[in-house]
Specification:
This protein has 5 helices and 9 strands; from the N terminus they run E-H-E-E-H-E-E-H-E-H-H-E-E-E. By secondary structure, it is an alpha+beta fold. Strands 1, 2, 3, 6, 7, 8 and 9 form a 7-stranded antiparallel β-sheet that branches. Strands 4-5 form a two-stranded antiparallel sheet. Helix 2 packs across helix 3. The radius of gyration is 17 Å and the shape is globular.
Amino acid sequence: MKFLENNKFNVLNGALSSECEGYRLDGRLESYSCKMTSSDKKLFKNVMQGMDGGSGPNDLHALSPPQSVLSRSPSRHVSGHSLSSDDGAGYLCDTISTKSLFYLISTLNDSFAEYDFSDSKGDEFSKEPNLQSVVTAIDTQLTPLIPGYDSLKPDMWAAIDEEISLAECDAIYSYNPDLSSDPFGESGQIWGFNYFFYNKKRKRIVFFSCRCSTNYLDLEGEDESYDLGYSTADMSYDDTADMD
């Protein structure tokens, strides 16, 4: 994986990272090439060997149900979930190849160098059902926290589209670890999201990560409610292709 410099993303990242009214927003848009470096190839071999019973590059791993089919409450991080018997009931889980999973893990390792995601499993990720539900989720979360977001978002989505061609994306994945293993689940975090927009033709991933946390140290007694307003409206993209 190679980080791809994008000046428009650099400007947008300034707006996605701010503090206001007791809250801190830490957001980033980054672009990565999926061409493996020599170090990537070595890590890929180690990841395959570290999986239960070993794994081949085309072996399939079960993903968790996407965020849009999971129940939500103010007490849960948007970035993580712990599946119960009722969560995603009746949902036929998607799968991901070992090589595809490695692309997601490598992106996280490159973006958050202070953490090691090499042991992450398929069930810590999801494949989102469509682009529109992701766009709606992101816009709904950012609108109340970024002044003038309604004016910012056309430029933001245009910059993302220019970099990855949203209509041609083969898949959109999200990182949704269990709360007990979420490296972003520090005290004070209210919500977070981590989306991977993948374009196989361009051999590229755009990673959109954001966390909202409170500036207050004492959260006891807080009872905030957040209306995430997710939409299941469909915006077509090819969700049957995988990252081979």
